[in-house]
Amino acid sequence: MYLSANIKFLRRRKHRTQGELADELQLKRPTLSGYENQVSEPDLQTLVKFSQYFRIPIDYLIKENLAEYSEREIQRLEADSEENMKGRSIRILTSTVSSENEDNIELVPDKAKAGYTRGYADPEYIRELPNFQLPFLSRDRKYRSFQISGDSMKPIPHGAWITGEFVQNWLAIKNGQAAIILTKDDGLVFKIIENQLKDKKELVLHSLNPDYKTYILKAEEIMEIWKFVNYISPEMPEALPPDIELHKAVANLQQDMDEIKRQLK
Predict the structure, then answer these.
(1) Other beta carbons less than 10 A from residue 120's beta carbon
(2) Which residues lie below 8 Å from residue 153, measured CB to CB, with a gap of 6+?
(3) pLDDT tens digits for 48-60?
(4) Hey, what domains does the chain have and what are their CATH numbers?
(5) pTM for the full model?
(6) Weakest-pLDDT range from 9-18, 57-66, 81-90
(7) What is the full DSSP assignment across 99-111?
């Protein structure tokens, strides 16, 4: 077991002090020191944080002496994120169930979004969220509802509740798909996705509101993706601008062209 030595080695490789790394991972410095000195061991949620921060698979963190790896080998581990994007590496989803042992749909209010960024993998935090059931949704899939704020996704109004389906394989997301994305730096965002993960390891994120600029999100910044299923709002939506429909059509056409090119190759 090399976890303690690997945490220390990777921290120094990134030129971080214990205090700096502890702040970035929302840990106390003495707690991190205890991990590095084998006084204590991180729980599963904290282990996931280390894996995502260092971009090293969990099994390598635990079983391999990374100090014996060459810099090129470590860079290869960092760059080889396709398994994570497919969901084959460990991806923790904390959930709750009803008294009938069925998955709940947890509600993440706008005021709780900042806490969700820190507590999305914390069972105690998730248990404290309100929850409900929608009987017309599949029992074989996991759903969660997030309250959105702002007008970047008009005609979906401010304050609407977006219900999303948990996405395990990020590479399977189609161009033009709307989704709630949990990011490391910006927290929860609701956007239209242009999926370039396979070729460029990034998503291009579009807003429905043309006043908001498109931007790029790197794969290593993604924590969770919840594919849009429906939304609930007391307000009637505005008409969708024609240029937005055109954008979605172009995105779908580009996906079809990419598929044709792959088949020709």
Answers:
(1) 19
(2) 178, 190, 191, 207, 208, 209
(3) 889 888 888 888 8
(4) 3-80 (1.10.260.40), 105-264 (2.10.109.10)
(5) 0.65
(6) 81-90
(7) TTS-B-EEEE-GG
